[in-house]
Write a structure and sequence with these properties.
The complex is a heterotrimer of chains A (211), B (288) and C (97).
Chain A lengths: L1 H8 L27 H27 L1 H8 L4 H26 L3 H31 L8 H32 L6 H27 L2
Helix pairs in contact in A: 2-6, 2-7, 4-5, 4-7, 5-6, 6-7
Chain B lengths: L18 H11 L3 H24 L12 H10 L1 H31 L6 H30 L5 H17 L1 H17 L7 H15 L17 H28 L35
Helix pairs in contact in B: 2-4, 2-9, 3-6, 4-5, 5-6, 5-7, 7-8, 8-9
Chain C lengths: L1 H29 L9 H22 L7 H28 L1
Helix pairs in contact in C: 1-2, 2-3
Classes of the chains: A mainly alpha (211), B mainly alpha (288), C mainly alpha (97).
Chain lengths: 211, 288, 97
């Protein structure tokens, strides 16, 4: 339990937290839980939930293989790849934001936070563009089973991205003024944002790539 | 501070003696008796709900929307007495049990450091949402069961109305979850752990996915679908069990003050979470 | 130093992005022209690659490398659970159709 006890006390102490001064990855920085452990509980729970949606999709896919395969041909793999890379970039920028904030470089942290929001925005626009394209091709939510799953998974993920904007808003609010800064909240927000990214990875794989 | 002592009222020791004697003593002298009554009402309500809906009326899990008029009439025939008895129980106890249930949840928000409007909004929302979200189904199903020789087309209509209203009106419930979530996140009185706020969010999100039930009569998004009903119900069941336990802990910790609730935060994360929540002064760094 | 950390983040990003682009090659290898072809190999490798990416995100971006053992084990366990569920549902589904 010593690790956990150590992690429990680490966020309380600003100066006792060795990560600020010792960020060399080769060394052993103090063990800590990034952000609130509560957010991690949520992350794991949401992951289970999404996994259940993916299991449902996969099982129905195997029962209806031809239909799903044919419908999948209407999806554009390139847009999917672009969306994935955009989200990966947003994770990258929010990780840099956390690091900058840890080191007290709040200008840089804010820049990275805004960059994250920008990437998120690009993702949303691209997703809507893709949906419009599909609808114009005649593929709507009710077209067939594949598209039910496609629109459902991408929409529920879209909703998580929208919530992510609220979360990033909190992060920006925290970073903006010295009076408010809470490293724990910044890291909690970042943890949520990374979740939005890593939940997209299997969605992309299952909808666009699997055959 | 021990959570067990009632330090704000004249401290009395609960008596030893027969269970009945102790129970009566608590009813007369325990300052938390209304809270405990509300809690037991909540537990009773959810148990009765499961028995009435799942076992007696078998309205949950819902039957398929993909049947025709004859199929719907057949369902009413199969469940005739179950519907009448099960729903009858609900009508009888609903006022007694659901009011304290919602009141206790609203109370938890009153105890928080946030504005009272959270509690009142939640109360208003849940009082409102129970009508289309549950009672309408109860009324419509009993109407359908009352005259079994009714025209099947009419029964079909009642069937759709009942199950669509039950499943399709999740929108109001989910807003209530969000209200509770925001209250918990802003709260400085440590009434609930923060992970419960996030569980409210997860519950609200699964209730969003129920919306397509209005469109589909089969597959995963029908009102009985794997995604629109089953997964949603599992999450809701976990969520309900969790908040029943958390409300119990809240009552145990309650000191009738206005500051932070004493005692450890319930849940397995307490040793990981810092003892103070969201206190900006503790983690500020001087601005560069 | 933050420079090392940032460099590491960039490398991670490059690795993840290349894996994403790798999907295009995988699909091209199996599809014929514009027609998609079913393939268990593609499906399994896609899922596995996706879960490797998820684990990398956990370890590098979400910093579970520096987390207490419990969190590391939980997240790794979660990835394994996802693998079990996804691959399991695929194979079970293929078997019973």
């Amino acid at each position: 339990m010593t690790n956990i006890a150590g992690a429990g006390s680490a966020p309380d102490e600003v100066d006792g937290r060795s990560v600020a001064t010792d960020t060399k990855d080769g060394d052993k920085p103090a063990k800590f839980v990034p952000g609130q452990p509560d957010m991690w509980a949520f992350v794991l729970f949401e992951t289970l939930l999404f996994t259940s949606y993916w299991v449902v999709y996969l099982i129905f896919r195997t029962q209806n293989h031809e239909l799903f395969l044919q419908s999948q041909a209407d999806l554009d793999l390139r847009i999917g790849v672009f969306n994935t890379i955009v989200l990966l970039s947003s994770s990258w920028s929010v990780a840099r934001c956390v690091q900058a904030s840890r080191e007290g470089r709040f200008r840089a942290a804010l820049t990275n936070a805004f960059l994250t929001i920008f990437f998120g925005f690009v993702f949303l626009v691209s997703k809507m563009f893709e949906w419009i394209k599909e609808i114009q091709m005649g593929n709507t939510f009710t077209t067939n089973e594949f598209f039910q799953h496609y629109y459902f998974l991408t929409s529920i993920h879209f909703l998580h991205v929208l919530i992510g904007f609220v979360v990033m808003g909190v992060v920006v609010y925290q970073l903006w003024s010295p009076a408010r800064r809470s490293q724990q909240l910044v890291e909690t927000g970042a943890t949520y944002w990374h979740t939005v990214d890593f939940l997209w990875v299997p969605i992309f794989a299952l909808l666009y790539v699997v055959r | 501070m021990s959570a067990a002592t009632t330090e704000t009222v004249a401290p009395r020791e609960s008596p030893s003696g027969s269970p009945l004697h102790r129970f009566v003593w608590h009813c007369r002298h325990n300052p938390k008796r209304e809270l405990w009554f509300a809690w037991w009402a909540m537990v009773t309500f959810y148990n009765l709900f499961v028995v009435s809906f799942f076992v007696l009326a078998r309205a949950q899990p819902p039957p398929s929307p993909a049947v025709d008029a004859q199929g719907a009439a057949q369902w009413f025939t199969d469940n005739h007495y179950g519907v009448l008895v099960g729903m009858g129980i609900i009508f009888l106890v609903i006022g007694l049990l659901i009011a304290p249930t919602n009141a206790l949840i609203a109370y938890s928000m009153r105890r928080m450091s946030v504005s009272r409007s959270f509690a009142y909004s939640y109360l208003a929302m849940y009082a409102l949402s129970a009508i289309p979200g549950m009672l309408l189904l109860c009324i419509v199903l009993t109407v359908g069961a009352m005259r079994p020789d009714r025209d099947p087309e009419l029964i079909y209509w009642l069937y759709d109305l009942a199950f669509l209203s039950f499943t399709g009106t999740m929108g109001v419930f989910l807003i209530g979850s969000l209200v509770w979530m925001v209250a918990i996140l802003l709260d400085k009185n440590r009434v609930f752990p923060k992970w419960f706020a996030y569980l409210n969010l997860a519950n609200a999100l699964t209730e969003v996915v129920v919306a397509p039930a209005w469109i589909f009569k089969n597959h995963v998004f029908g009102w009985n679908g794997l995604i629109a009903w089953w997964i949603d119900m599992v999450v809701f069941g976990i969520y309900t069990g969790v908040f029943i336990m958390l409300l119990r802990k809240m009552i145990e910790r309650e000191d009738f003050g206005t500051g932070p609730l004493p005692g450890p935060l319930p849940g397995p994360l307490q040793e990981l979470a810092p003892s103070k929540e969201h206190d900006p002064s503790e983690l500020t760094r001087t601005a560069p | 130093m933050s420079a090392t950390f940032n460099k590491r983040l960039l490398v991670v990003w490059l690795v993840l992005s290349s894996m994403t682009l790798g999907y295009v090659l995988i699909d091209r290898s199996v599809d014929e022209g514009g027609t998609l072809r079913a393939s268990a190999v593609v499906t399994v490798s896609t899922i596995v690659i996706a879960l490797i990416k998820v684990r990398i995100i956990f370890r590098e971006f979400m910093e579970t490398r520096h987390a207490p053992v419990l969190l590391r084990r939980l997240t790794d366990g979660w990835v394994l659970l996802m693998a079990l569920c996804l691959l399991g549902s695929y194979f079970v589904g293929m078997a019973v159709r």
